TrEMBL record:
Name of the protein this chain belongs to: NADPH2:quinone reductase
Record bears the keyword NADP: yes
Classification via PANTHER family: QUINONE OXIDOREDUCTASE PIG3-RELATED, QUINONE OXIDOREDUCTASE-RELATED
Source organism of the structure: Rhodocyclus tenuis (Rhodospirillum tenue)
Keywords associated with the record: NADP, Oxidoreductase
Enoyl reductase (ER) domain mapped to chain residues: 11-322
UniProt GO MF annotations: mRNA 3'-UTR AU-rich region binding; NADPH binding; quinone reductase (NADPH) activity
Length: 324
């Protein structure tokens, strides 16, 4: 018997249920993976709450790491016994084992453990497409990264610094400020007591930053636009504080002919070749130590509701995993 977290209605963490499920054999093109660790991400709370609707009943979770137990017809790039990890859709990672499309699986290098992989795949691949594809950072660029002590933030700040960027991060308290400083931020702004855009202008000598990576959403959107230099790029990739209200496009011209994009990992990894390229870049920077992935919280998978409460209450830092 296998178990998984399922939801039958949307709502708060109380709608998460630990249930027996039938997994079965993989269909053609699929592989069955037994999870050693599963990642926790803010997008999981959007699926649970209904902000990002799912057909119900549904599983949750978009990333995991484990061992291939079986493969379906036509699968050639992974084999039984391979150590693998994945991130992206479809949902269902909150499970002891699952079947999923084998072309979403990446073989793990021997130097990267399951806990690290589960903690980094979604956040790391997100950082990879943001920094290397959406707005390819150049040495000397000044960048603003919101929620710098969060899962994406800690990876993105280290990676951006390794690329030669001047990294400015925002955080909510001194503990998170110290964490951000230790992970690549040259400057840290306490958004709870400082005007972010004013401080960015001070730090950059009035110029503003080349790009803002904003996974917070509603609460930071205008400050993000006001932090950009002319022709700068606003990258809005999350809604931790709620969705951004409708935007008058004239604002972009008034604030300096700005660029605005709302990317998703799914689009940047839709082709297998793109997934492998971003995955290889991520594995390289983690394996050689330029980016350190630290698991700050562990919860039993059956206790996912507790993990969701802590995540939404901002009681977590960095990466969190769920252990089946």
């Amino acid at each position: 018997m296998s178990f998984a977290i399922r939801i039958h209605k949307t709502g708060g963490p109380e709608v998460l249920h630990w249930e027996a499920v039938v997994v079965g054999d993989p269909a053609p093109g699929q592989a069955r993976v037994r999870h050693a660790a599963v990642g926790l991400n803010f997008i999981d709370t959007y699926h649970r709450s209904g902000l990002y609707p799912l057909p119900l009943p549904a599983g949750l979770g978009l990333e995991g790491a484990g061992v291939v137990e079986a493969v379906g017809e036509g699968v050639t790039h992974v084999r039984v016994g391979d150590r693998v990890a994945y991130a992206g859709g479809p949902v269902g990672a909150y499970s002891q084992e699952r079947c999923l499309s084998a072309d979403r699986l990446l073989r793990l290098p021997d130097s990267i453990g399951f806990d690290t992989a589960a903690a980094m795949m979604l956040q790391g691949l997100t950082s990879a497409y943001l920094l290397r594809r959406t707005c390819r950072l150049q040495p000397g660029d000044a960048v603003l990264i919101h929620a710098a002590a969060g899962g994406v933030g800690l990876i993105a700040c280290q990676w951006a610094a390794a690329l030669g960027a001047t990294v400015i991060g925002t955080v909510s308290n001194e503990e998170k400020a110290a964490l951000a400083h230790a992970h690549g931020c040259a400057h840290v702004i306490r958004y709870d007591r400082e005007d972010v855009a004013v401080r960015v202008r001070e730090i950059t000598g009035g110029e503003g930053v080349a790009v803002v990576y904003d996974g917070v959403g509603r609460d930071t959107f205008m400050a993000s636009l006001d932090s950009l230099r002319p022709l700068g790029m606003m990258v809005s990739f999350g809604n931790a504080s709620g969705p951004v209200p409708p935007v008058d496009l004239l604002l972009l011209s008034q604030k300096g002919s700005l660029f605005l994009t709302r990317p998703t990992l799914a689009h940047y990894t839709a082709r297998r070749a793109d997934l492998e390229a971003l995955g290889n870049e991520l594995f390289d920077v983690v394996a050689d130590g330029r980016v350190k992935v630290e698991v700050h919280q562990r919860y039993a998978l059956a206790d996912a509701a507790c993990a969701h409460r802590d995540l939404e209450a901002r009681r977590t830092t960095g990466s969190t995993i769920l252990v089946p």
